[in-house]
Amino acid sequence: MNHTAAAFEDAYGRSPEGVWHAPGRVNLIGEHTDYNDGLVLPFALPRGVSVAAARRDDGVLELRSLQAAASGCRVRIDDLAPGAVDGWAVYPAGVAWALREHGVGGASLLVDSDLPQGAGLSSSAALECATALALCDLYGVEPDRAELARLAQRAENEFAGVPCGIMDQSASLLCTAGHALLLDCRSGLSAQVPLPLGEDLSLLVVDTRAAHALTGGEYAARRAECEQAARLLGVDSLRDVTDLPSALESLRAARRPRSFLRRSGGPDAAVLQRRVQHVVTENHRVEAVVGLLRAGALAEVGAILTACHLSLRDQFEVSWPEADTAVDAALRAGARGGRMVGGGFGGSIIVLTAADRLDAVRDSITAAYAERGWAAPAFLDAVPSAGARRLS
Ligand code: GAF
């Protein structure tokens, strides 16, 4: 029997009706573009969250986790409201709350995860998506997957209070094995782009062991800066900036509003210029990477990953010392490129390297960490894997 199903039986004394799985993700490129209506290119990891579940007819949602045995949650579906649940349970409870209007009722859930938490690999989105699939199947609800991604995002935004974009939930639900997902976050249209890792090239995920959380104020501050820049430029979102030099010039000319921005507690024009520079060039980098992948030139993608890292470090200012050190060490050891992934301020980096440099890259990063007296990083093979699915 499936391990998660067996754990459900131990916890609840009956069999689950099924087990559902949703993967974590790594974003190949397209960072901080999703909430600017831009382009992203994530792929699913071979690790994720499994949920064993069964309906119950008393209108109660009961949540337990193998990774947090001490902190379960029991709440009436009718009592679900933002603020009613906290801790890890806020994510599955938020999904049940968002699905309530679709007729979803009580259920018992047992959660099991092999994703490192705080590693910036989307463990919260994986938990939301596995829960969403489970509850939909249990209650015969059949939304399409893009709609389900929006529902899970709404749960995270409105129920958990985390102002994330749509990338992570879309990646978990829409990715397919061997591919990255090109998602246009404005139109919602997506395409599968082959990401063939053969014997020659490897993608390595390095958990920098600096914990990442989106709940800190910096992520929300970046979103607010992007929205403010869009307002000053008179566009709906930074996706609409087609002429970067003119946009930067307009923001420079907006130096008079600078005193206004200061009075209103906002950032000055130079900060907004840097944010715009990152977002606009990042959309171009996504398009360039997609072009290279479609041309079968994965090795050439490395330089663009590194350019993305520098932009996130210097223009968007969301990198952190462990990420910068790990990227530098990987490049010194001959990697083709590397960059921080996700929201920033902690989490993981991704490195593209010739397979025969893999050991040298790992050793170089480990040595750089040891020199600084930091706890050793963790390495994960980044194999583009299948999206969320029912396991049994
Ligand atoms: C986090 C968010 F959840 C995503 O929506 C995205 O904005 C990402 O940071 C940055 O690209 O993972």
From TrEMBL:
Any Gene Ontology biological process: galactose metabolic process
GO CC terms, sorted: cytosol
Ranges where the GHMP kinase C-terminal domain occurs: 292-370
Root EC class: transferase
GO MF entries: ATP binding; galactokinase activity; metal ion binding
InterPro entries per record: Galactokinase (IPR000705), Galactokinase_CS (IPR019741), GalKase_N (IPR019539), GHMP_kinase_C_dom (IPR013750), GHMP_kinase_C_sf (IPR036554), GHMP_kinase_N_dom (IPR006204), GHMP_knse_ATP-bd_CS (IPR006203), Mevalonate/galactokinase (IPR006206)
Superkingdom, taxonomy of origin: Bacteria
Domain Galactokinase N-terminal stretches: 7-55
Pfam families to which the protein is assigned, alphabetical: GalKase_gal_bdg, GHMP_kinases_C, GHMP_kinases_N
Sorted UniProt keywords: ATP-binding, Carbohydrate metabolism, Cytoplasm, Galactose metabolism, Kinase, Magnesium, Metal-binding, Nucleotide-binding, Transferase
E.C. no: 2.7.1.6
Similarity comment: Belongs to the GHMP kinase family. GalK subfamily.
Official protein name in the record: Galactokinase
Organism per entry: Thermomonospora cellulosilytica
